[in-house]
Amino acid sequence: MIIKARRNYKQVELLEALKHRTDLTSHQLELLRHLKETTLLEQHFELYLSALDMDNIDVIWQFNYSDYHQDALINLVLISNDGIYLFKLNNYSGLHYINHHGMLADYFTDEVKIDLVHLNCVKYSIYNILDPRLKQLPIIIKCVCLNDRFALDGHASKQHFLFKNDIAAYLSQIKGSHKKKRELLLR
Fold first, then answer.
1. How far apart are CA 187 and CA 180, in angstroms?
2. Helix H segments across the chain?
3. Can you tell me the mean pLDDT for 64-91?
């Protein structure tokens, strides 16, 4: 069931309207570019969700999280009987690695990407507010890499990453676990 549907970002509409009336700052232009890219990533990933059995999975698009330290957008949250799945979508390209702080970084420029930080902040915050009866549910985080040219250093753990070629199979595992569970309940 869709709890929160995917919507276009209101900031895009506002910035587009302003762009034709005044000069935008470089920060505003960067925000507009980023939001347009995020919209395209979400639209692309939404196509994969058609394989899911929506009777067993709750969907929350564009989950915003803020605390004293972080403002994070988690593009998609899936809640099933077996777990809570947090997906942060990106379009990074090139070789990346996990640095000594546990953050994703570009291999050649050392530019840090904060996807894993956002995912972990939201993971632990959700865990703290869960009803005690639901705390046995695992919270699985996935940094979804939708660019074919993205690569992760061979020494880095791929545990928290989902690559474009693996999305359909990964989502079908979520769907399959529910069918098995439903079959067990019907017996």
1. 11
2. 10-19, 26-48, 115-129, 167-186
3. 89
